[in-house]
Specification:
The longest helix has 26 residues, at 53-78. This protein has helices spanning 8-11, 32-42, 53-78, 89-110, 123-138, 142-145, 149-159, 162-168, 194-202, 218-225, 232-241, 245-255, 277-289, 326-331, 347-358; strands at 21-24, 27-30, 261-268, 298-306, 312-321, 338-342, 362-363, 366-374. It has 15 helices and eight strands. A six-stranded antiparallel beta sheet has the order 6-3-5-4-8-7, with helices on both faces. The protein has a two-stranded antiparallel sheet with strand order 1-2.
């Protein structure tokens, strides 16, 4: 590759003479940000660039925020640790302050949100999370992360998406930050010590232990051995893209496989402890985050109803693959704090499900303060 990028043929494709470079039928595109935007725009149906012009603008805002407000100080901090550039105490102090400022902005934004833009992963999440991969692995340790719980929750959600893991792999979060040579602020200073290198080379290699075989999810087995006539992803697309949700519900009832799927209502067992609206809404967001293991097998809407100063209630309606709620409880232990009631399919149930999934202002006599969709 190094030889190729110095060739005249390659230099003719990009004025920078370096990668990344994307070749298309119409010509070449250079710079990673431009390439990412181009690829996201190729498939507007995925929602990667937002579902509206406004959301697209928000995606652009976070991409620019990452480039100008976050990545520069992160590079100043990380580069000396990995041997790119020399340690400078004043520059490091300024970089740490700037990183804290940037993370606080993201933290404030994510307190009541699952993703940076809209209700799904977008290019904004991909770009910002990618910029934070090495920092979370090397420098953003437990102590530094304490004020940024929402950022950590969001980051873990994004990097654990199968598509993200396929490219980046596992991203373990560092316990104690590494430091550059010359930085004595941390006992884990990175030193180029020849004796340590020699010791490592002469160390007795450990025997490879076989990795435990990955256990297949019971619902994945059900999908394989007894496939349903209903396509759950098709329903999620219908719900997301249909302007009139009443039309989406018509599609749902026409395609519902009552043998392969079941409907459930859930009510939080400790609604009497809900005192602050923002904390309750945040708790529901966390609940959905911890339900990630059911992403392929469930759809649901969780509502926070009521008003601060009076009763605040968490309630929801879910569609599960199979006929049990046990897989939800296994995926998310917090589900044990809810009472789950299996719905019998009749006209009253249909009306109630539609109210949970379609209403925006009121649910069963209570005002809807916040509604979150798991899809």
């Amino acid at each position: 590759m190094a030889k190729d990028i110095k060739s005249k043929a390659f230099m003719a494709k990009t004025p920078l003479g370096k990668v990344p470079l994307l070749e298309t039928e119409e010509g070449c595109i250079f710079e990673s940000g431009a390439i990412a935007r181009y690829v996201a725009r190729l498939r507007p149906d995925t929602g990667l660039y937002g579902k509206t012009f406004f959301e697209s603008g928000q995606v652009d805002a976070w991409i620019d925020f990452s480039a100008f407000e976050m990545e520069v100080p992160l590079e100043v901090w990380v580069h000396p640790i990995i041997g790119v550039g020399k340690f400078n105490a004043a520059a490091l102090a300024k970089a740490k302050a700037d990183v804290k400022k940037a993370l606080q902005i993201i933290e404030n934004h994510l307190l009541l949100r699952t993703y940076l833009v809209g209700e799904q992963v977008t290019l904004a999440d991909i770009v910002v999370a990618s910029a934070l991969v090495y920092p979370f692995k090397f420098i953003l340790d437990k102590e530094f992360r304490k004020p940024f719980s929402a950022v950590t929750r969001w980051f873990s959600t994004v990097v654990n998406q199968p598509e993200f893991q396929a490219v980046v792999g596992d991203v373990p979060l560092i316990d104690v930050a590494l430091t550059a040579e010359g930085d004595n602020s941390n006992t884990k200073a990175v030193k180029k010590d020849a004796s340590k290198k020699e010791k490592k080379e002469n160390a007795t290699p450990k025997e490879d232990t076989p990795k435990p075989k990955k256990v297949e999810h019971p619902l994945a087995i059900l999908n394989r051995d007894n496939p349903s006539l209903m396509n759950l992803d098709a329903w999620k697309v219908q719900y997301s893209n249909t302007k009139n949700l009443a039309d989406a519900m018509t599609w749902f009832w026409e395609h519902l496989d009552t043998e392969g799927y079941s409907l459930w209502f859930c009510d939080y067992n400790y609604n009497n402890e809900n005192s602050k609206m923002f904390m309750t809404c945040n708790a529901v967001g966390g609940f959905l985050q911890r339900s990630e293991g059911m992403r392929k097998y469930a759809f649901g809407v969780m509502d926070v109803c009521g008003a601060e100063g009076s009763e605040i209630v968490i309630t929801g309606c879910w569609l599960f693959r199979g006929d049990s709620e046990k897989h939800m409880i296994e995926a998310n232990p917090d589900a044990e704090y809810y009472t789950w009631t299996k719905a019998e399919l009749n006209d009253a149930t249909k009306a109630r499900v539609a109210a949970y999934w379609c209403n925006e202002d009121e649910l069963e006599g209570r005002p809807i303060a916040d509604s979150k969709v798991f899809k």
